[in-house]
Recover the amino acids of this structure.
């Protein structure tokens, strides 16, 4: 039987203080770089040393922050979610009085990819793909 040692990394997730739908992640611990790599791979943006932010055009940040938290926890990283963010995660996002279920989120993911390409840009394509 093999046991996995816990990773010395902690992630504190909280709504952004001035942008209500955005989520911040503050990383601590000797192995915080592991959490950092995972969040960057999930389209979180570095804004300071060991601080990342998730901003999306579809305002689905709480859902995707919860998804990131599940992945980080599965890797052995401690994740703390503030009560305010947990409340937002527990709410189902609605559009035109109809709940948006996970089956519909693939459209939001597609739009996020286009937004990211425009935001980051590319010298070869003039910034738009």
């Amino acid at each position: 039987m093999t046991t996995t040692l816990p990773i010395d990394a902690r992630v504190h997730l909280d709504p952004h203080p001035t942008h209500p739908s955005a989520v911040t992640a503050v990383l601590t611990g000797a192995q915080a770089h592991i959490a950092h790599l995972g969040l960057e791979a999930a389209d979180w943006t570095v804004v300071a040393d060991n601080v990342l932010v998730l901003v999306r055009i579809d305002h689905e940040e709480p859902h995707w922050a919860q998804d990131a938290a599940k992945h980080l926890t599965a890797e052995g990283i401690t994740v703390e979610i503030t009560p305010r963010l947990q409340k937002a995660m527990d709410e189902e996002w609605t559009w035109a009085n109809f709940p948006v279920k996970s089956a519909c989120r693939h459209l939001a993911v597609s739009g996020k990819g286009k937004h990211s390409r425009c935001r980051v840009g590319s010298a070869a394509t003039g910034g738009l793909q």
Helices lie at 32-41, 61-74, 83-90, 105-120.
